[in-house]
């Protein structure tokens, strides 16, 4: 039991503490990434040309995260040393970076999850296609009714032209009297009036039909465009959340449609919960780091072979720390360098790390037992 207690206190707890510290660092790194994404977009402007928004964002994130981490450390340190060294408002200063982180996480969550599948370029392109198709259809309808009007007026136009030719022939032939020529002229005027009357009537009839057809086309196009930019139907929302809300809505009221306000509130709740969780992990981690080691790890001694075994335990702890740091670095390098991570990336990297660790631990194990034997 004494050996087990020694191993737990001197091997397991230090490794678990290092893992916990690295988890806190990863939480701070995640919070920093969220803040960077928000601040980079926030300070992006065409008026700022002398400095890049990325540089401003990186500097602000470094200041914000370091300020937050160190104040968490000082907040935990005040319990173990004289608090007169710290100003009375030091605890309140910690709320400033916490509030900014919460605000950035909320903006990031809403921007990412609310209308997450919305693609503005695709929407604009589809809108232009709809409008272009609408103009093409309108031109086709105009040409179609122009042809129909021309075809419907063709007999009247032909009759008018014929009576006009008869009048001109009678006028220049010299065989008709003035009274006969006048009758030809009156006949031509009558046919022309009939032609004009039919043109007005048919034009009004065809224009009414044409305008109705064009109005229907414009209405359909407007509905299609409105459907593209309408977020109430949740087609641009996050699939998991929207499906959950649809199923939840169908359980209580099958007729009721998807509620976008409820979706927005859930997105805000997710953002706030994520930010609070990260901030609590960061705060607890660095307050935990501020605890003195003599209070955290009481010394446990084993008499028989304490020196050799302690040295071996130190090597195991060092190897474990190297393994944890190696895995963390590999993960961060993959996260930064690779845009689309796949399972094969993680499997290959972890297998390499595990192989190196196995060889190193086997080497320490061999040396230790060779010295004992």
* Nearest-integer average pLDDT: 75
> Which percent bin holds the helix content?
over 70%
List segments where confidence is low: pLDDT < 50 over at least 5 consecutive residues.
none
Strand percentage:
under 5%
Major beta-sheet overview: none
Q: How many discrete structural domains?
A: 3
Number of E-state strands: 0
Query: Structural class, please?
Result: mainly alpha
**Which geometry do the CA atoms define?**
rod-shaped
Following the backbone from N to C, one meets helices and strands in this order, namely HHHHHHHHHHH
User: Termini, distance in Å?
Assistant: 23 Å
Number of helices: 11
- Radius of gyration, in angstroms, nearest whole number: 41 Å
Structure description:
This protein has 373 residues and is an all-alpha fold. The protein has three domains: 1-117 and 238-301, no CATH class; 120-233; 303-373. Helices cover 82% and strands 0% of the residues. It contains eleven helices and no strands. The protein has helices spanning 2-42, 53-77, 90-93, 95-113, 120-173, 178-228, 239-252, 260-289, 293-296, 306-337, 343-372. α1 (2-42) runs parallel beside α10 and α2 packs across α8. It is rod-shaped, with a radius of gyration of 41 Å.
